[in-house]
Amino acid sequence: RLPLHGKPTARNSQPLFDLGSLPSLFWDGRVEVGPGGEVRTLVDEHLTPEMRAAFEFGAVSAQAMLPVTVREEMRGFGNTELGSIPDGDVPANRRALMIRLGEIPEYRRLFGAAYPGTSFDAMTFAHASNAMAGFMLARLTFPSSPWDRFLQGQDNALTPIQLEGAAEFAAHGCTSCHAGAAFTDNGFHNILLPQIGIANGDGPSEMEDYGRERVTGAPSDRYAFRTPPLRNVHLTGPWGHAGQYSTLHGIIDHHGDPEARLRNYDVAQLEPSLRGMLVDNVDNLLATGSPRLTGPPFEPDVTELLVRFLGSLTHPAAQNLAHLIPVTVPSGLPVD
């Protein structure tokens, strides 16, 4: 959430692992696949039918359309060809990005190879976003974790402790939200996570984040955020829509007794620059809290077993992605 310049972003970045089966993306589901199979970005009226036609990989194809238009995320500030574009002119921002890419001959060649029969000048940023989706699905999908191998009949794929953790995962009702191949119900719930501003300008203090309500307009969706998938979850900290927990043990303990964890939240686990941004809205959060989290607090040994089980969802190849870093990039800029 901490950029090089400007204020912190409102939410924690989500991982890019195993996105192919997800019908909605972002914490508030602002990008989703509609009932008819069409990709919708529910906060972007600038997405044209021609752009949608470039999408080949479902919701993932549209994911990169949004962060590039946000100053705090990717667009930046200052007197640059992107920073100087007025905030409301999203089409101009995306056109400027394609102009920047088109000035590099190697990118023109690569786009031509990716979309044969379409001239670069006829492409929009949707083609770039779709290409990024293709890369993520090809290189960041890991379908054969120890848990998958266990389900396929490899009895020794899990350790005895991981098997105990799997039993606890089921016994405590975790599968009511974390189900299916990606371990998510693709729903939106208020699990009473404390809010760490700067947020999205919601509420009287303008420091709150109304979550899914920002997309649907429904007060019942206030403070509800998408159930995160759990594949490779050991690798994706900090956890929570605002990065509230610095350890997996912490976020799991929160699920065992969310109201108590909310009321007694310790800001010391946050980055120092975020510690003064805890929003005082406990009563507001409690008003729309999910009824699913009503069990007793987890005992320490149960938390540890759940952590161990979640480790079985990590594919060994996901633990080191250094091989994906290119030696050079078409722009000629240095690769860090």
In short:
With 336 residues, this protein is mostly helical. 31% of the residues lie in helices and 4% in strands.
Q: Any overview of this molecule?
A:
With 336 residues, the chain is mainly alpha-helical. The protein has twelve helices and five strands. The protein has helices at 49-53, 71-75, 90-102, 105-114, 125-139, 146-151, 160-171, 213-216, 248-256, 258-263, 282-287, 300-311; strands spanning 24-25, 31-33, 39-41, 188-189, 225-226. The strands form two sheets. The protein has a three-stranded antiparallel sheet with strand order 1-2-3, with no helix packed on it. A two-stranded antiparallel sheet has the order 4-5. Helix 7 (160-171) packs across helix 12 and helix 9 crosses helix 12. The radius of gyration is 21 Å and the shape is globular. The chain starts with 23 loop residues before the first strand and ends in a 25-residue tail after the last helix. 37% of the residues are buried. The model has no long low-confidence stretch (mean pLDDT 92).
